[in-house]
Design brief:
With about 600 residues, the chain is α+β, with helices and mostly antiparallel strands. Among the domains are: about 15-210, Nucleotidyltransferase, domain 5 (2-Layer Sandwich); about 450-590, no CATH class. Helix content is about 30%, strand content about 30%. It is built from 16 helices and 25 strands. β24 (about 565-575) and β25 (about 580-590) form a beta hairpin. It is globular. The protein starts with 12 loop residues before the first helix and ends with a strand.
């Protein structure tokens, strides 16, 4: 069922690029300034025109930043890379200067926001009068949602000549401070790097708010609306929430006996795991309106896939990795993989998850309570994957890093958009003692997409990684979504290995590593240049501390990377008068 034909550029591209779009950045005072004066402020801003990727203004006061937009005399979009940080300065200015929050965007000197319940910023829309008395709107958006990379990595990923520099953030910069040439270059490069990367996206017609929306829009734009609705009809909220119980993330697991030991190992990564699943490499994907069935699913040629509710008790078989995480159960940690379920527990599982469960656990009790069965296809996404994979291959051939990065983003971000939760709750900003605070708005409901698709994609992904780990069980150390780490020896592991073929495992080389628990490890291996490269993953650890460890010799680095180790220099955001500061906090590896 191949459905993408022409890969035409989405229709709104030229219209979007003809409108005024800018990229901006703030430089702001730091903790020493706040400790001395009790507030923070913007001491530098830069604005770059997206179309030309040239600087149009550099200034040192947020008031002048807003004056710039009043002079334009037309509505514009302005991107910040990490709007959550810079947006707090914008909101502080608005709320302290007479602007009123209005979710409907009515009236002059009002603004609205799209900030989710976790505090994730998507946009800030500001309405005001231009100097020519014309109603204007500036929409501030987050380019991090379009390009989920740090600025220094964007430069390399898109092969941009400008590089992110360094400045002394903590020197005192009082009101009226004049920027040095080095500071101007620093903030200019940050803006131009982001602008050039965004322009690469928008030249391809990718103009939505997030890269996930871009991927979905590109996919839909190459078929009729009727075809899309046939393939992915809208579930009601009750069905969506039922299927959502089967939607889980990637398999991340450290074998307990391997924790806190130093290993010489070898790692393997799947070539484009989620794109290979969309391509049909590991099985059919659901489409269409499902049918309810009672009891246990019975094979149906027209409806070969299913999501099944069961009541289950069981224990893990020998030489098998656990597959179950249980969320919403007080007796289980949400991040824990369960080896024994000794009380009757309801599970809602996709067919690949249920197959994996039955292969991995001895059944002590099982009861089948019905579910929904789906039609299945291996070809719905093939044209989409073929197109963007060809873009990636061509980019490899020509050395076009920007095109390669864009293709990877499009390939990896489509499936997740189908899993968007229709139950939403926004945060509303308000002012308290001149400091921006946030309160939860009422819950809202949008039209569901097709979460069953996302459930099956991640289920196939877990199945591939867990089965690969089981095939190498004696050597297994750690897995993270699309990678496995094994104790090194000369033998070839029992997995399908190929450097490039979709869905097969690529040898990522030998490493020396220490794993403390899920998402907390240090590895040293040879990089592309042949030099030793240190990789550190540790939740909430700042780059500053990671760089401290990376500068150590190998023996010292592995020694200090231990549970209970304390470090200075972890930066944590705190909302204060004027905006946000980064506080230097101690950090403990837990």
């Amino acid at each position: 069922m191949s459905i993408m034909k022409n890969h035409q550029r989405p229709a709104n591209c030229s219209q979007h690029m003809d409108s005024k779009i800018y990229v901006a950045d703030f430089e702001t005072t730091t903790e020493p300034f706040y400790n001395k004066y009790g507030y923070t402020r913007v001491w530098a801003y830069c604005i770059v025109d997206l179309k030309s990727c040239e600087v149009v203004e550099i200034g040192s006061d947020i008031k002048d930043f807003f004056k710039f937009f009043k002079k334009i005399n037309k509505s514009v979009t302005c991107f910040f890379h990490n709007l959550k940080f810079d947006g707090n300065f914008i909101l502080s200015y608005l709320l302290n200067n007479g602007y009123k929050y209005d979710s409907e965007n009515h009236g002059c000197n009002t603004f609205s926001t799209l900030i989710d319940h976790t505090g994730m910023f998507y946009n800030i829309c500001v309405n005001f009068k231009s100097y020519r008395n014309k109603n204007l709107r500036v929409t501030f958006q987050d380019s991090l949602k379009k390009i989920p990379l740090k600025v220094n990595k964007i430069s390399k990923a898109f092969n941009i000549s400008e590089l992110k520099g360094t400045i002394d953030y903590d020197i005192e910069r009082p009101v009226g401070y004049e920027l040095t040439e080095d500071e101007k270059k620093y903030i200019t490069n940050d803006c131009i790097i982001v602008a050039k990367a965004l322009k690469t996206q928008m030249d391809k017609g990718l103009t939505k708010m997030t890269i996930g929306s871009d991927s979905l829009y590109y996919f839909i734009s190459n078929m009729s609306k009727a075809k899309y609705k046939y393939l992915f009809p809208t579930f009601d909220l009750e069905m969506d929430q039922y299927f959502r119980q089967s939607y889980k993330g990637g398999f991340v697991y450290l074998k307990p006996e391997r924790a806190n030991h130093l290993y010489k190992g070898i790692s393997y990564d799947v070539n484009s795991l989620y794109p290979s699943i969309l391509y049909g490499k590991f099985g059919k994907l659901p489409y269409g309106m499902p049918k309810y069935f009672k009891g246990q699913y019975k094979y149906d040629k027209l409806y070969p896939l299913y999501i099944q509710s069961i009541i289950f008790m069981g224990h893990l078989k020998e030489n098998r990795l656990p597959t179950l995480q249980l969320k919403g159960f007080s007796r289980f940690l949400e991040t824990e993989y369960i080896k024994v379920i000794d009380e009757p527990t309801e599970l809602v599982l996709t067919s690949p998850d249920l197959e994996l469960l039955l292969d991995s656990y001895e059944i002590d009790y099982i009861e089948y309570n019905g579910g929904y069965k789906f039609k299945g296809s291996e070809t719905i996404f093939k044209d989409f994957i073929d197109f963007w994979n060809s873009q990636k291959v061509e980019a490899d051939r020509t050395g076009n890093e920007g095109q390669r990065t864009l293709a990877k983003l499009m390939l990896n971000n489509l499936y997740g958009k189908f899993g968007t939760n229709p139950c939403k709750q926004k945060k509303i900003p308000y002012l308290e003692n001149e400091i921006v605070k946030y309160k939860l708005d009422e819950e809202e409901f949008t039209e569901p997409l097709y979460v069953a698709l996302a459930s099956f994609v991640t289920a196939y992904g877990r199945k591939q990684t867990i089965e690969a780990g089981n095939n190498c069980y004696d050597r297994f150390i750690y897995a993270d979504t699309d990678s496995i780490h094994l104790v090194y020896d000369e033998s070839v592991p029992n997995i399908a290995i190929d450097k490039r073929e979709l869905g097969k495992w690529k040898n990522e080389g030998i490493f020396y590593g220490k794993f403390l628990h899920a998402k907390t490890y240090i590895k040293r291996k040879k990089g592309d240049t042949g030099l030793l490269k240190t990789e550190i993953t540790c939740a909430s650890m700042s780059d500053n501390i990671k760089n401290q460890i990376k500068k150590m010799n190998q023996q010292e680095a592995f020694k200090v990377f231990s549970v209970g180790s304390m470090f200075n220099g972890n930066l944590k955001q705190k909302v204060v008068k004027g905006g946000v500061i980064l506080l230097n906090m101690p950090f403990e590896i837990r």
